[in-house]
Amino acid sequence: MTFRQLAYRNVFRNRRSYAAFFLASVFSVMVFFVYSMFIFHPLFSEDGLQQLAVRGMFIAEVVLYIFTLFFLFYSMSAFLQARSKEFGILMHLGMTKKQLNKLIFFETMILGTVSTVAGIALGFAFSKFFFMIGREIMELEALPLYVSWKPFALTIGAFASLFIIISFVSVAFVRTKGILDLLQGYWKTDDMTQSSKWLSALGFVLLAVAYTLAALVSDSTVYKMALIIPPIATLGTYLFFTHSIHSLLQFYKRSRGVYWHKTRLVAIAEASVKLKDSAQMFFIVTIVSTVAFLTVGTLASFMSYTGDFRESNPLGLIYISFNGNSEEREHVDRLISQLEGKELEYNMVPLIVKRQTSTMSGNDVDIVRTSDFNRLALTLDFEPINPARGEGIFIPYSQESLEELGEVSVDTRLMESDIDLTIDEVYPHVMFPVNTVNFNSIVVNDSDYAAIDEPLAGFGDGESTFTYYAFDIPDWEETVSVGKELTGIMQQAVVREDFRNLNFFFVNPGEDYRLFKSSFAILLFIGVMVAAVFLLAAGSFIYFKLYTGLERDRRQYSLLVRLGMTEKELGKIVNRQLMPQFFLPWAVALLHSTFAFISLQVVWDEFAELSILGEMVFVLSGFTVVQILYFFLIRWRYIEHLRAS
Amino acid sequence: MTKVYEGKVTHRALNQLSFDVEKGEFLAVMGPSGSGKTTLLNLISTIDTLTAGEILIDGVNPHGLDKNELALFRRHKLGFIFQDFNLLQMLTVEENMVLPLTLDYVPTDEMARRVLELARKLGLESILHKRPNEISGGEAQRTAIGRALIHNPSLILADEPTGNLDSKASRDVLELLKSVSEDSGATIVMVTHDPIAASYCDRVLFIKDGEFFNEIYSDERRQTFYQKILNVLSLLGGNVNDLSAARLP
Long-range contacts for A623-629 (Cβ within 8 Å, ≥24 apart)? Predict the structure, then answer.
């Protein structure tokens, strides 16, 4: 057996304890590789959506890289610590520190090579599948598989560098102070030290503070709180697992009537030892799970935003023509012919809008006449209105403005044309998208409208009116690419930040909607994959902890069985031991996420009146199901292993 | 040799203990619990440091070496046998045996040759490719002996080698050690509780409270040597429960 063979054998014959770690790192490589395949795709253009996908995936790759670094760091340190005794024996036999470093370096590089190769192979095998998903989301005609060295080079480069860094760093994990210490092995530090009363109280207090702050967050404080709450919650979680929970168990133990009851004695004694031993792991698993829950939950909440889109955008297309627009006729005709070319049913209502100054506020007001407005309302199946002379009705520009304007009552005068108006009503539907209407827009009686004969102060006749072409299109989602040239011109103006020569305004809500939906779907797609890596990593921490304890547990169980414990009671004890390992970090993470979502709801309330409750319940229960499946899988393996003795 | 453990309570584990071991001698060290046997072995093993005094092995004082030289010293000059075998679970019997050679980058055909030779002597031929969890305690200890012998060390250190074995396996292991000492002239220092185990040795050194207490040499018959050992042990006093009062079969 050569020195290298020693390293190979250490890794391959230890594969069972590396299994979950290996799964998580292979999956991480795979996701990274699939993103690289997207990023380097030769057919990807500068198009907004594809650019978003590329950027999103690039950021996801950075996140994956950093997370994997941390994951490897933690896993390797745990692995090496668990192997203390083995290293002690080797050094006792005359292995030098240099040789030990070499051994660990070899082993890490073997693990790294195998994970990277397996991850890339899987990623390449499944890239057709992921391209299909990508094609659907981005609505591309085709996203063919391609072969290029770039994604391979990026993935190999990234993970090779990661494993090399870890190889060097992990060498430092092995304390070689004394061979005697190493020979004592991993479980030496099993003594039950008392947990500090103060720190355990502090843990509870910090968590309570974090939750209270999260629950009480308001519009104005939410961004500040987003910086304050996470550190408090993180520290609180740490203290909770390292101190608070032990104080609780101590308290429980003190009441002997409860503690000394049947199998409970063993289960609780065992649980408290394990909790102590796993405190840091619990903390890390909780934080990682929380981040995964929040990532997916937040992205899923975007999806509920698109659900609300139609209510705020009942119109299919909007074209606004301002003074001096020589192409008005041409543009409108082209839109109509494009709609007809797509065989889309439509109804166009032009509104001539007049501008005046309100004496009440000093702002300029956009004024629409009742007959035009009712024509549009009719095609949209909304109720018509009928203001008397001298009355005006507010046009709402968002769901929120609907409520606010309902409480406003104004007596004003249109300054230029000397018309007195009383406005104390709001039209009960949002009809125009928020970016196409003046916040001061009203409908007036046709006669009042006709009486407006003076131009807006400081402007010419032409500049104080404009035409608003509103298209009602029942199949509004199908308008993608209608008015593409107009959208293009608008975008150019936005890029140049020069709107002087732009004397029209065009909005295609259907296209916007598709874009929103696709963008959020892309982000969700990216986020779910990253979250899956996180959760697999968290699972691997739990698995590894169980595995390193298995030998010891086995000895203990065979002793208990010899002392007269039945199989059924044994099953009960195993349950009691595994449950906290699996569900304690998960439950805390769930609680964290719930409070974080309460805060998120506040943010959403500010943008759009919608509830993310449904999405949250869906996401969190989805994770719960996965966790329960994982529990049963591991429990089954664990009991098999125990029975084996 | 003097060894003092500093701590809350300063503890003098070895106090000016001094003795020689002849080349090719099989020496047992006995004494009650806490008498300093294990400390002595750890000091000779070079994994613990002396407070005062010196140890010379083949004329070399290993405690004067740096960490790296010390590892090489252990690798070349010392062989170890432990109570709980300390075999690596990931490696087969054969691989465990060649471990000291692996660390020394010995060519593989040389390793193969030595393993075969030793396996025949130790009766391990049939289990060379088994892993430690698939073999009995006696076989595990013989594997460990193979590992301790494979590089022909100057000194073999055994820490309660029969502590975890039944009487049959213990006898096998002890007879093996004795024949190794007689046939190949290996020097063995064995720490033990067990007067039966000690009776296989050429000489038994008794220590008490870290100091020299007595020493006796073996004569022709093991039975009488065993009696002598028991006599000294009863004089030693200390923890009588440590001692087995059984007669030799």
Answer: A623/A289, A623/A292, A623/A293, A623/A296, A623/A535, A623/A586, A623/A590, A624/A586, A624/A590, A626/A535, A627/A582, A627/A583, A627/A586
